[in-house]
Write a structure and sequence with these properties.
about 500 residues; Beta-lactamase; 2 domains; ten-stranded antiparallel beta sheet; eight-stranded antiparallel beta sheet
Length: about 500
Amino acid sequence: MPTAALNVRRFMSGVVGALVVIASYSPVSAQSGSSRAAADADVLGAERLFSAWVEGQMLERGLPGVAVGVVADQDLVWSTGFGFADTTSKTKMSPATKFRMASHSKLFTATAVMQLREKGKLRLDDPVEKYLPWFKVVPSESDDPPITIEELLTHSSGLPREAGAHWTTFEFPTREELRALMPARTAPFAPEVRWKYSNLAYSVAGLIVEAVSGQSYADYVQREIFQPLAMDASSVDRNVSGLAVGYGRRMPDGTRATNPFIDARGMAAATGVTSTVEDMAKFASAQFRKGPRGGAQILSTGSLREMHRVRVLENNWTQGNAIGFAVRKAGDKVYVSHGGSYPGYQTNTMLWLDGKVAVIVLTNADDGNPGGISTELMNTVGMAVAKAASKPPSTLTWDPTWSRFAGLYRGRGGDSRVVELNRKLVVISSTSANLDNPVQLEPLGDGRFRYVAPVGGGPVGEIVRFVEENGRVTRMITGDSYVDRVQP
């Protein structure tokens, strides 16, 4: 039996050693961070830098067109088009140009399933056959357990990648044909054995949405996602006006074929959505919102967080999936994203959740490489926007009397030292080696601080306060625990 998949849905990471905390404070600004970012000189410079790079890429690679957007929280801060939506008519590319979004469709399918879960109409650990009694495949092993809905959404079902030769023939199966072919499909892996991307799995997930909601997939997504988000230019498998011409890869003689409109039919839930930069910006902004489901809050905070957290890792730990979203770590940042490839179109959306920044790159060529473009867009304009939109500098200045909190504290678990460092208080431990990566002890006023750390272990996010008796600091309380001051 193959090695079990690295499933981390219940994984909780611990933190070894003490944390170092740096104080900061941010009042509410009358001007939103995103509006500040749009006019920021560094952002404008990053836009020029990125634009020059893209124009060079298009020239070198002969790309027909690229549309891009950068989102800061709830605003589309910058968007533009390069090249042409139609090279024959010289129709210029723009943020309003429509593209076949390809596998971006999976994000809407996963969202639909999570909505139905919130309504109590299904559970993620339900077997698929509970809602689709006809769902049968030839198992990889005789003792394979039933495939669950969550396994479809996290690419851990073990199902084949495709439902036939549709990428070659451009003839995608209907719902009926998809249902008919299932009994003959053989699962390469048992569920949970490894991460394995599957368009077939998401096509089945779309059929679950239909069975549970009583609506067609297109109607459900239109009513429950597109309409609440005012994604008025988006649709499922409709040959709409304003669609960019989809071009094939550049051939050795420099020419590109054009592709006709191709209906995804029964695989619409995996690859059938059409959208724009402007509409995808609205979907990206929805990922940053908080609150209960309702209206433009298409999912509750809790469900969104579930969709963004890694659930399954490839066995070599190089890539993984949340619910719908792919997740990857680059340096000290974690990105959730999705790309897509459909005849004539390649697309990519990347979100840096901590910075509340998203970038969208849509191309109308089979060799558009939007993943590489989105990385450069995030590293230039995205990071400049994140910096410009971040909280303004603290107005809670260093209080010299806080020096009295510095000293040695001792408890059952070991010693902690509070150190005054560059007009900040930090906490260190003799058992840790993290001086090069301090974390923040955030002053809240009234002698209270917040324990802020780069990793989510220990008392991160909890309140720190000091006990004083007869003018002497005697104890440091962090959350529900305390250590006593060792007086000099």
